[in-house]
Amino acid sequence: MPFRMKNDLPLVSVIAVCYNHAKFVTETLDSVKNQTYANIELIIMDDCSTDNSVEVIQQWVKETNYPCQFIAHQDNQGLCKTLNEALNFIKGEYYQGLACDDIIIKEKIETQVNLFKKLDNDYAVIYSDAYLMNNKSELYYGNFIQRHKPKMLEIPSGDIYEELLLSNYIPAMSVLIKTDSVKNIEGYDENLTYEDYDLWLRLAKTFKFYFSDYKSCKYRIHDNNMHSSSNFKKSALINSFIIYNKHSDKEISKHKLKNIINNLYKNDLHYQFKDDVLRLALTPRIIKCIKSNLNYKQCQRKIMLEKISKKMKLNIKQIFNL
Q1: Percentage helix, strand, coil, to 5, in the chain?
Q2: 185 and 262, same structural domain?
Q3: Is 312 exposed, middle or buried (0-12, 13-18, 19+ CB in 10 A)?
Q4: What is the span of the domain harbouring residue 135?
Q5: Whole-prediction pTM value?
Q6: Are residues 67 and 145 in the same domain?
Q7: Backbone angles phi, psi at 178, to 5 degrees
Q8: Which of 55, 129, 182, 241 sees the fewest Cβ atoms within 10 Å?
Q9: Residue 270 has pLDDT above 50, yes or no
């Protein structure tokens, strides 16, 4: 059956980003191909996968003949830079980001485009809940929002900025966004490893969000979940610091910033800077701290935080009054 593009419908761009998703990318791309919405622009971005993702994608494109654009990076660019690259040439009035291990249900885009037609112009984002699935695409009990924010009684619409500052509970693959709204805030922050939370917060400062009460997608939880690794935890903490630092005028952000820095100090980064602290211990700095009526433990923590700040090129003095 030929693929018909209905020009009377708003164009929706789907940005499917792949990194070592060879086992799952076909299922993801099929979920785009099977959408009931008839005017979709598919952009597939592979960010220098080290498995055979590129070959799998090329085979899918050849076999399905689905209209799309495939870009394969020769060097790893990172997720945020990859998404910004795609934003520069997509043509859709709306767009959907999608990791190539997740799935969108077939009515998702059509349902959300129809919702946008009923909303005021100050709404820029529609989001929903998501199913949870394993590596075999078998569903888990529960859902995404319940997993990330179990005590939330009512999922908000409208001005959700303050609620979002408390935590990120929005499934990224559930979202449909007005393209112009993201371009108005200059796209994704390429200093970050993970894109979604920062984007939601910056959008929510200016635009409204609408929650559609159904599950529009499936989020994959991997058996060897990278979220449990120490490197991921450190990266996530640093990511969170950069994000909350942008919103430090809010009291909740200041509180979270202090918690993040304390976690960096107490956990793995403590050992990363241990040698620096020991070298500093015999310098006049330690004497100065003692003269300032700080005990050794306080002094060590003060120096440690300064070293963390220098190492990560982050300004934490205003938070801890160093």
Answers
A1: 45, 20, 35
A2: no
A3: middle
A4: 12-224
A5: 0.80
A6: yes
A7: -70, 120
A8: 55
A9: no
